[in-house]
Design goal:
27% of the residues lie in helices and 25% in strands. The protein has 235 residues and is α/β, with parallel strands linked by helices.
């Protein structure tokens, strides 16, 4: 059952409802909005983009522990980690997506603990997670540093964070005016947040053609791809 009682007290910013409503519609309209290829649950790194391949390799090398997928979408990342033996908490703002995560996880014979909540205020256990993902979710959040600080407080020493988010190197397409989006400048506050961590990957993917969104015309995005390991004693 989807956990709907995980948020902390407080009023979310007004844009949060707009994000939820947009993705509820998309997830209800399309059988799959993300990860439409047959590789979606593959554990073979060569079946994935370089960023997702490296996340998969890092996860496979580590002893399976607890993983946190913040902004889980339809659950492809979470399901792959569960297949690797991780205990996975998937946080997703869209209740439609949460139901799809549970259904897709059952079809793959794995368990994912689903939390229907915003990444801004979901209640997270202290110092618990060995791997934290923000794969395409942080650019829908204006308060990035606050979210990163909460994710760090929930991370164990030596935990790995993996982030992929829109950068400002490519202007957003007209289609993305339908949902609040907050891209990050290259070298900006997100990267500065991790300046004392061990950087495993920092890449700028500029002007990448995007064809995966149903109902959108082909367009381009630029991304910041960052994977970092938390050393002992860091914030």
């Amino acid at each position: 059952m989807v956990n709907t009682a995980t948020s902390l007290p407080g009023t979310p910013p007004p844009y949060v409802n707009a994000v939820r409503n947009f993705f509820d519609h998309q997830y209800a309209t399309h059988p799959r909005y993300w990860w439409q290829g047959d590789n979606r649950y593959s554990l073979e790194p060569s079946q994935h983009t370089p960023f997702n391949a490296l996340v998969l390799q890092i996860a496979a090398r580590r002893r399976p522990g607890r993983a946190l997928d913040l902004g889980a979408g339809e659950g492809a990342d979470a399901i792959r980690l569960a297949k690797l033996g991780y205990q996975v908490d998937a946080v997703e703002i869209s209740p439609v997506a949460c139901r799809k995560i549970e259904r897709f996880a059952r079809a793959e014979n794995v368990k994912v603990h689903v939390h229907n909540d915003s990444i801004l205020d979901v209640a997270l256990p202290h110092a618990s997670y060995d791997l934290v993902l923000f794969n395409g979710s942080l650019h829908y959040t204006r308060e990035k540093n606050a979210v990163l600080a909460r994710a760090t407080a929930a991370s164990a020493p030596g935990a790995v964070h993996a982030l992929a988010l829109f950068s400002t190197a490519t202007p957003l397409s007209a289609e993305h005016t339908a949902v609040p989006v907050f891209p990050e400048p290259e070298g900006g506050t997100v990267e500065q947040y991790y300046r004392n961590w061990d950087i495993l990957l920092l890449a700028y993917d500029r002007d990448q053609a995007e064809h995966s969104h149903p109902g959108f015309e082909p367009h381009a995005h630029s991304y910041i791809k960052l994977i970092a390991r938390r050393p002992e004693g860091t914030r």
